[in-house]
Amino acid sequence: MPQNEYMERFTKQHGRRFDYEERKRKREAREAHHASDKAQNLRGLRAKQYAESRRKQKIQMKKTLRAHEERNVKSNAPAQDSSTPIPNYLTDRSNPSNAKALSSAIKNKRNEKAAKFSVPLPKVRGISEEEMFKVVKTGKKTAKKSWKRMITKPTFVGPDFTRRPVKYERFIRPMGLRYKKANVTHPELGVTVQLPIISVKKNPQNPMYTQLGVLTKGTIVEFNVSELGLVTAGGKVVWGRWGQITNNPENDGCVNAVLLV
Amino acid sequence: MATVVPPPSKRQKTAAAAITREQQQPQAKPQGDVRLHFVDPATGRSIGPPIVVPLARANTRNLNILVNSLQGQEDANDRVRYRFVLQADPDAPTGSDQALPTDSDLADIIGKQAAAGAEATVTLQPIPEAVFRVKAVSRCSAAISGHGQAILAIQFSPVDSSRMVSGSGDNHARIWDCETGTPLATLKGHTGWVGACSYSPEGDIIATGSQDKTVRLWESKKGKPVGHPMTGHTRNVMALSWEPYHLQAPGRPRLASASKDMTVRIWDTTSQRADIVLSGHKACVSCVKWGGTGFIYTASHDRTVRVWNASDGTLAHNLAQHAHWVNHLALSTDLVLRTAYHDHTGKVPPTPEAKLAKAKQRFTDAATIAGEVVEKLVTASDDCTIFLWDPSSTKPTKPLARLAGHQKQVNHVSFSPDGLYIASAGFDNHVKLWAARDGKFISTLRGHVAAVYQCCFSADSRLLVSASKDTTCKVWDVRSGKLKEDLPGHKDEVYALDWSADGERVGSGGKDKQVRIWRH
Predict the structure, then answer these.
(1) Shortest CA distance from A105: residue in chain B
(2) Which of A72, A203, A224, B103 has the smallest C-beta neighbourhood within 10 Å, fewest atoms?
(3) A123 occurs within a structural domain
(4) Is the pLDDT of residue B265 over 90?
(5) What is the pLDDT of residue B95?
């Protein structure tokens, strides 16, 4: 590989050929003919490679053209800064996109009876007790009777939970599978925030799972939405909001949910 | 098994008994006499000779009767209600006197003052209160749909509370009949959000300013457009302000419009041309107010407040103290300038001369402090402070006071119509009350759970209403600083708010596209 700029150095010292510009112009003018010749006559792998490189060049060219066009457009007034009307005193302020949508459309929807009970995930896969519980057989007496169960799915355990004495503890909820927070999406705004779980409201599989706080796909969970700054019509801060779990937490290692509005 | 609490020991019993005995002891009545001297705050002259009054009976009610009789208003029907303020002693260090005492602690303060300087006279300023009383609004008399987008501005007619105009994001303004709660007219023509609307002081013309860079005029009876759209601004129109009635050339009212294009244009509404363009601000002009002494005040995002001569458009003063955007400004004479000759009696003078005289008289009455016409100015800013200015003083560019206390940006300020209080609404969920005399902090009105956008005094200065992002309006008692009424009902943020000049109604509008009218 050349280590120095010897060609530039030579041109600086001795100049170029007298017909350099002319030859360059002609070469560039012939460029299109060469390209067309290649496109017509190349065969096989060469043709494929050539077509691919041309395609990429054309994409690049179109992008540049578009960029130039955008630059040439005269933007006299900036487009309306936001689509929803706001009073003059709120314009130019970087309004934090707080998760807030209490549009009348949503309210009307909630008034309909059918919509009241509709949830984003209406059907769930059934989970049998064999899949949910592992029989604990350690220890002398439990091994004999085998009435102790370990829950194999992620769970939510409330902050005030204390374990019962080992002798009476029928269900074990492993520490490694406990979740306190979930990634909650506000469907209207498309905002996702991590919110603390307050409680498990309904596990569609089995009322017992609801009691145990099992988090499976389709479970209805109450979240602490005080961070979002939602306000009721009476001017009170909304604290708890329900949501439905949309993923399989046991597969993903996180809880994703969507708010029910 | 429930645990039973053991009975209290003898020591506990005696201690509790001692506390109750102490509480039952009546407050010792202040003894002795005090020499009171009353001084008229407007003229600075004394009302009668100093009078010796027993301290025990020096309450507001008795002093009211005393001052009324000193001024020859013996008949109970002629009496004017007064509030008493201790005259600030020029020698005393600032902060020693109570800003505005309430009824209960008046005797206390007088007693303290008398005790401090034995044999000295205590000087009191009786401040007349409004002769009429506005009742707190408590119910929603009408929730009117009609606008297709959020409501951005609302103003009541200066004539009475039966007409109201609202500007909206659906490019229309609408006139409402508040008596029946029905829409009266739709002012169609703008092609952008209508962010500002304003009645002329006479109440016959409505001006609307919009995002489409134009200002339009409408006749207020039927909502017919007057003339053509007034073009000239190159960005949104932010605020509008009419020339005060007593300064107008007969039949040629002028209008000032502030815009995002850094200029303020003064339009002659008859010829519909821009007379003067006030340029000098280096950023968006956020607010404009036309003062009654021939000044135009503008607040801008370039951190300055400028005072212009309205006659020729020259810059009089540049008030540069704020450290961030100046959001809003208010004048001590705002309500009087807005209503001109329309007062609480509803009587309109018959002739133009009488109208002019009455408007002028009302302005001088409202603006006179210690015999001089003083128009105070208060500005709210994003630097979380408020400044109080007196542009007519000898040092106009020096603020009278810097009102610090808000934790976040201050969005809106308003002066009480009697010129005694300033209310400020901030994004820190609080409304704060300040004494307009010296800018001292009085109280914080807590109750909103989100940013407060607007606040508005009632015409008698006894009540304040505030509108907030938390979808409610709240009515506050200014004197006690307590929540008087909570007005829930809006389904979303409340952007605009106005209390009619006759005190009958409050109008509010916001993101839920409904105009609501609140009444007692």
Answers:
(1) B512
(2) A72
(3) no
(4) yes
(5) 41
In a domain, B26, yes or no: no
Tokens describing residue B1: 């098994």
Which chain A residue has the Cα nearest residue B171? Answer: A85
B68 and B193 part of one domain: no
Give the CATH number for residue B383.
2.130.10.10
Q: Report the C-alpha dihedral over residues A81, A85, A90, A93, rounded to 10 degrees.
A: -30
Check pLDDT > 50 for residue B97: no
Residue B191 and residue B106 share a domain: no
* Torsion from C-alpha of B82, B83, B86, B87, nearest 10 degrees: -50
Residues of chain A below pLDDT 50: 75-80, 96-106, 108, 113
Q: How many CB atoms lie within 10 A of CB B26?
A: 5
- What confidence tier does B251 reach under pLDDT thresholds 50, 70, 90? confident
**B470 contact residues in A (CB cutoff 8 A):** 231, 235, 237
Contact A87 B153 (CB under 8 A): yes
**Which runs of E-coded beta strand occur in B67-171?**
82-86, 121-128, 139-144, 151-156, 163-168
Task: Give me the pLDDT at residue A140, please.
Answer: 78
pLDDT greater than 90 at residue B152: yes
Based on the fold, state whether residues B353 and B417 are members of the same structural domain: yes
Q: What is the pLDDT of residues B472-493, one digit of tens each?
A: 999 999 888 899 999 998 888 8
B255-284 average pLDDT score: 92
B232 falls within a domain: yes
Domain tally, chain B: 2
Q: Which of A87, A104, A235 sits opposite B195 (nearest CB)?
A: A87
CA distance B237 to chain A (A): 9
Range of the domain at B87: 33-128
Whether residue B208 sits in one domain with residue B114: no
The domain tally of chain A equals 1
Q: What's the confidence (pLDDT) of residue A199? A: 93
Whole-number Å distance between alpha carbons of B14 and B299: 65
- At B75, the pLDDT band (50, 70, 90 cuts) reads confident
- CA-nearest of B61, B100, B31 to B441 is B100
| Contact residues, chain B, for A84 at CB < 8 Å | 149-150, 169, 511
| Together in a domain, B107 and B159 | no
Task: Indicate whether B473 and B511 sit together in one domain.
Answer: yes
Report if residue A73 sits inside a domain. Answer: no
Q: What gap in Å lies between CA A113 and CA A108, rounded to an integer?
A: 10
Specify whether B371 is located in the same domain as B264: yes
What's A205's domain CATH number? 2.40.10.310
Residue B71, domain CATH:
3.10.20.90
At position B417, the amino acid (one-letter code) is P
According to the model, what pLDDT value does residue B126 have?
81
Q: Do B352 and B464 belong together in one domain?
A: yes
Range of the structural domain that residue A197 is part of: 129-259
CA–chain centroid gap for B171, Å, is 29
> What does the pLDDT average to over B108-118?
67
Domain endpoint, select from B93, B109, B128: B128
Does the beta-carbon distance from B450 to A229 stay under 8 Å?
yes
Q: Which chain B residues contact residue A236 at CB under 8 A?
A: 449
Q: Which of B12-26, B177-191, B340-354 has the lowest mean pLDDT?
A: B12-26
Q: Which residues of A touch B (CB under 8 A)?
A: 77, 80, 84-92, 102-104, 107, 229, 231-237
> What span, in angstroms and rounded, lies between the C-alpha atoms of B403 and B414?
14
Q: Which residues of A touch B414 (CB under 8 A)?
A: none
Phi/psi of residue B339, nearest 5 degrees: -100, -10
ipTM given for this complex: 0.77
Q: What residues of chain B have any CB closer than 8 angstroms to a CB in chain A? A: 149-150, 152-153, 168-170, 192-193, 195-196, 211, 234-236, 238-239, 284, 286, 301, 327-328, 411-412, 448-450, 453, 468-472, 486, 488-492, 495-496, 511-513
- Supply the pLDDT for residue A186: 85
Chain B contact probe: residue of A88, A111, A238 with most B CBs at under 10 A: A88
As a whole number of angstroms, the distance between CA A114 and CA B234 comes to 51
Asked whether residue B21 is assigned to any structural domain, the reply reads no
pLDDT at position B363 over 80: yes
Examine residue B16 and state whether it is found in any structural domain, yes or no. no
Instruction: Centre a 10 Å sphere on the Cβ of residue A138 and count the other Cβ atoms it contains.
Output: 7
